[in-house]
Structure formats: C-alpha cells, structure tokens
TrEMBL record:
<dbReference type="Pfam" id="PF00534">
    <property type="entry name" value="Glycos_transf_1"/>
</dbReference>
<protein>
    <submittedName>
        <fullName>Glycosyl transferase, group 1</fullName>
    </submittedName>
</protein>
<dbReference type="InterPro" id="IPR028098">
    <property type="entry name" value="Glyco_trans_4-like_N"/>
</dbReference>
<feature type="domain" description="Glycosyltransferase subfamily 4-like N-terminal">
    <location>
        <begin position="18"/>
        <end position="156"/>
    </location>
</feature>
<keyword id="KW-0808">Transferase</keyword>
<dbReference type="GO" id="GO:0016757">
    <property type="term" value="F:glycosyltransferase activity"/>
</dbReference>
<dbReference type="Pfam" id="PF13439">
    <property type="entry name" value="Glyco_transf_4"/>
</dbReference>
<dbReference type="InterPro" id="IPR001296">
    <property type="entry name" value="Glyco_trans_1"/>
</dbReference>
<feature type="domain" description="Glycosyl transferase family 1">
    <location>
        <begin position="165"/>
        <end position="301"/>
    </location>
</feature>
Amino acid sequence: MKIAIVSTPFVSVPPLKYGGTELFISHLTEKLIDRGHNITLFATGDSKSRAELEFLFPKGQWPINQMDELSHIAFSAKRIQGMDDIDIVHINSPYALPFANMLGVPTVVTLHHPRTQDFSSLYLQYPDANFVAISQSQRQGEVALPNMSVIHHGLDPNAYPPSEHPQNYVAFLGRLAPEKGPDSAIRAAQLAMTPIKLAGSVHWVDNDFYNDHLRSLLLKPNVQWVGEVDHVQKVALLQGAQALLVPIRWEEPFGLVIIEAMLCGTPVIAFRRGSVPELVEEGVTGFLVDSEKEMAEVIKNKLDKFNRAICRKRAVERFSTNTMVAQYENLFQSLVQKNRKETFSRRAPSHQAASIS
C-alpha cells in the first residue's frame, strides 16, 4: 500500500525529547516500511525517517499554535491531492478531519486527545471517517461513532533494553503538570523513605503549579530533578529505577511512558485512572493504587521480589510495534479493499451500458 501519514508541526519525528504522538508515529512509520509499504510522512523538516518526507516547517513549531497546525494540515492535504496513487491517509489531529474529507481516499484518524465537547461534535460531522481510539477507556468515554477501533500503542522493544539490577531510587517521567502528579510522586517516595529522580519539563501553562506547589518539593532531600531527557537518558533512568510512579489526576487516554517502563522490566505503580487499569497488570507489570499512602506501601513492601524479566516479557507480548502495526495494517488493508470494491461497483453500470450499445 501507499500510505500518507500526517504528523504534527510541533515536534520532529521521532521527538528528540518530549512528544508522545510523534514517537508513536515514528514507530508506526518505520515498521510499516519494514513490512513493505510505501510511506509519505508529512512532518517537520528536522524529522528522521526512511519514509519520503514532506514538510512545510523546517523545524518543530513550539509552543503549540493552532494556526501552525492548520497551515501544516492544509499543506499536507494539498500535496496528497496531487498524488494519484495514495491508497489511504492516516491523520493524527482532529483539525485535519475537514481536509481529509476532500481527499477522495479512505482516512484513518487516531485519537490522541482526551474527550472535549468541541472535538466530539467535530467527529460526529464526519461519520465516514475511520477512528482509532488508543484505549478502551478512551473509546468508552468518547461519543458513539459508527467506525471506531481500539489499537493500543506499541514501541520497539529493541529500543528499551531490560535491566535486572535497579538502583536505589524510584522515577517520575513526564510533564511537570498538575494532571501528571509529580508532587504526589515526591510525597509518596518521601513516605517510603526512597530517593526519587524526576525527568521532565515545566510547560508555560503550568508555571503557577510549579511555583505554588512543586518548587519547594523539588528542594527536599533525596529528590533529584534531572530536567528534560533524550531517549538514551530516558532509558537509563527507567532501567535504573525500582519503579516508575504514575500518580495521574486525569483520565489519561494511554501514557506511552507506562509501556516504556514495562519494556525495561521496570514496574509501574499508578493511580487507577483513565487507561491505566487496562495497561498495568497487577503484580505482573506493576501495581494499581488509589492514594499516595498506598503508593508508598507498594514501594516499601512489593518491589524486592518483583520479577522484572516477566514484566518485560509481558510488555513485549502486549505492546510491541509488531503487535500494534499488524492491527493498523489489517485496518488499512480492509479499508483499501472496501474502497476499491465500492469504486468498481460505481463504475460497473456504465461499462455494462457501453458494451450493450
């Protein structure tokens, strides 16, 4: 198949540091190429991919600006319209739906966002689009749509070598934002009397949270903030951690960091919110808790005997790129075949009429 994949204009593919959507797109793109498909990737000019790269912006446009996103999508749609042999388009932004409807080929839309009324109303205007939720939790919380699948994200296990010998710390990895709960992670680690390392940055929208609630906690003993990390630093952090703490305060649709930790063999201790209960298997890949106190109890009492090899094995089974890409490939192929049949049936009557005359 010849597939057009439209990323965002905000971060390169793959991202150098922050960028969950772009990381997913990178793994999907490269594995589809491995499986023999021809991919045109619409991303930023500083992206690194074996796909044919098309871009409007030479580098990522940060911070996020919706006008940049619309310009990027309009550019992508115009270029796709000029390609006669594109079989299917895969988009990763709700804002691309009005443009995708004009392309004349099947469109798949992966939903990366939590539900908002604006997005849900937009989805209902395009019932012919094919939506992919990234978790059952996300699908159940979204408006009912006629064409919606669920495909969990997957990552390349080779990019996350396992570690059997953790060091004396727990980790937090992600934006230092209230919904991610870095303050809860610090308090839980302090209750457990265990050092904690935090990796991530403060986005401008979270400055008040940082100043009012987080800054003083980051100065406490045995708390180390290492800032934003690249892939190599991230893997090293996860490999060395006794556990990854995920005390989220929102209905997170997925959370790639969860499977990144599991692939390293590192258990995830997470609040029971959003997609977490369908990602974390109790006692196998991590532990589900409902409070900072419970999180601290797990840190103190359940990590010494945790089997990191089994954690890694189960994560590979459920969340590898092979598993994810096989599902996307099947979806793409079924939609392309359906479109070809419908196109043939529309043309058939005129051919029959011509032969009779």
